[in-house]
Amino acid sequence: MLRIGITVGLRQDESLWNNGIKQNALFLADTLRRCPNVGSVRLVNTTDVPLPASLPWDASRWPVFPLNDLIHELDVVIELGGQLSADQTEALKSRGARLVSYCCGSEYVLAMEAMLFNRPLWGDRLFINQCYDAIWIIPQVDALNRDFFQTLRRRPATVVPFVWSPVLLEERCAALPHRGVYQPRPGPRRLSVMEPNIDVLKFCLYPLLIAEEAYRRRPDRITGVQVANALSMAQENRDFIALMHHLDLVREHKAVFTGRHDTPQFLSEHTDIMISHQWGNPLNYFYLEVCWLGYPLVHNAGLCADLGYYYAGHDVQTGCERLLEALENHDAGWEEYRALQRRVMSRYLPSDPKLVGRYAALLDAVVSRGAD
């Protein structure tokens, strides 16, 4: 039975909602524990940050251990949320442990933007590990990143199933009204946009254009749009400010630009309909969180086109039509909608037998390949 370690890189101020990396590690751990060829799964910290007394997740369910304390006990180490050093790699390989690079970020885009726009990413600290036994890529980052990973890490890559669970979301929602679940309300709808706005992959402009088109057609049905993660652009970016003043939503004071928010609370307090757009990242925890709670999501994420209200590509007009559909019809079947979303999302859950079987086979393939 395999002893698995999944890396996390703890920082001083941990949060589960800044990005999905820590969540990904927890959900993968829950999945692998169900594999018949796995005896234990542990989260292992690769940084020098002391383990805090409390973590933003249940430490009894997902305990974290210093990697160096377990380096001689693990059969497979999956590098996910914290990078293995050259010394740790050598120590693991010297005793026959297998190393897996679990790729769940758009590293090609980050590297491109770092070099084009002078956003320091590595400096002289860049270490590219070329000693992996396998590279696993989640589906949404495959198209843009596969060859970036394969060439630099000198290993063929395999696409692996995406894993998600509502356990952390529901814990966070427990104290919210109606446990954070969407509730119908009378009157015009409150539109929201919550793209991170930190790179080209998920930016607020196309959702705003969709909201603008819908507002021009049905201003009586829209009370306004709130755009999160956009406060600094709205205050400081002259190009963004100039463009926004060509929108009726802005000129008629129907748009509000705010900073960062906790997703469940933002949905509960500010949102009737969420509008989203991605470019090269067609599946994301955020989409699943919105749909699990029953909120209408107007989106173009092709890997989950059967969720929410889908439009393809950059098609603002179709996005507008889907938004108008949600405006007019969502509340008539809101409970059925939520139930359908959850049935569809069952394919991502750690308890899904097909998903567990696939990961068991992937582990068998890793341990069966000969040592380099």
From TrEMBL:
It holds the Pfam family DUF2827. InterPro entries: DUF2827 (IPR021234). This is DUF2827 domain-containing protein. It comes from Noviherbaspirillum galbum.
